[in-house]
Amino acid sequence: MNAMKKNSGFTLVELLVVIGILGILSAALFPAISNAVMKANMTAVGTRGRDIYVAITGANTEREPLGLGNVWPKTQLESGADTSDDDIASKTFSSSCDYFYELYDGQNVGTENHSPYVAGFDYSKLAGAGVPAKSGSGQLQANNCMWVIGANVRDEMEDIIPILVTRNIDCSSLYKDLEDGSKSDKITFSSTYKAPFSNKGFVMIRKGGGTFNGTAKYATVRVVYQNQSFKTTIGNQNALSYLGPDGQQNPR
Fold first, then answer.
1. What mean pLDDT is predicted for residues 221-230?
2. Mean pLDDT across the stretch 183-201?
3. pLDDT tier at 17 (50, 70, 90 boundaries)?
4. Which residue of 28, 56, 70, 225 lies most exposed, with the fewest beta carbons within 10 A?
């Protein structure tokens, strides 16, 4: 009889207590685990954005002594531009998908004629953290592009300006001219795109090459622009704009 008691398992009450304790521990650890996963994803996304920045700036450095324009996207060509030229610097774009497709020479992918404008860039740099990578041939789709990119970017613009922004930020809440960098206005999240990061965080690459991994708490003008002011609408030059996966987003 005593041997049978010694070999008996947990009672139902004991099992429920253990399950309850495990549930409490899981609930306590879940926010910390989720936060760690998001930070890891933000680091990976930031690396991809930095790779795009390096690829574009490297191409611009190579092209300048050749008398070729920069490869940053444009929404409108400067007065007197040669529109008959088939070079990317002589084209305008209405979305980041169209731009990245052209930058990578998407129409010739998989052929001997494939000749991207930049080195070190492919469609994998546009995916991650819930945004699927493009597969197969054909035009790049919004579902496979996580970046909003600055358009009409010029060398003289301040380095603090974000030029690559994850698509879950509504870039119409950013600025093309900012007189007071200490403003506490909130930068708003996109109502269209939840991935990557939903309304929890975002990644920006600045014109100077710096990477900013931000959380919702720090999505303010003062933090994003580090208390600095700037002006991109100078004379008759085209002001800073942003191209999202499905269209243009005009900053304030």
1. 96
2. 96
3. confident
4. 28
Cα separation of 182 and 142, whole Å? 34
What tokens does 224 get?
A: 């994003």
The domain spans of the chain are: 15-249
CB 71 within 8 A of CB 59: yes
Q: Please report, to the nearest 10 degrees, the dihedral formed by the alpha carbons of residues 208, 115, 102, 128 taken in order.
A: -60
State how far the Cα of 206 lies from the Cα of 78, in Å rounded to an integer.
Answer: 24
Of 201, 234, 207, residue with least CA distance to 38: 201
What is the torsional sign of CA 108, 112, 116, 122? positive
Who's near 204: CB < 8 A, 6+ residues apart?
49, 162, 164, 165, 166, 169, 211, 212, 214, 224
Nearest Cα to Cα of residue 70 among 7, 139, 157: 157
The confidence band for 170, taking pLDDT boundaries of 50, 70 and 90, is very high
The answer to whether 50 and 147 are in contact (CB under 8 A) is no
Residues 6 or more apart in contact with residue 149 via CB below 8 angstroms: 73, 96, 99, 100, 163, 164, 165, 242, 243
CB 249 within 8 A of CB 148: yes
Hey, how many other C-beta atoms are within 10 angstroms of the C-beta on 246? 17
Cis status of the peptide bond prior to 196, with omega within 30 of 0: yes
pLDDT in tens, 116-164: 999 999 999 999 999 999 998 899 999 999 999 999 999 999 999 999 9
For residue 42 the two structure tokens come to: 């933000």
* φ, ψ for residue 244, nearest 5 deg: -90, 175
Phi, psi of 71 (to 5 degrees): -100, 5
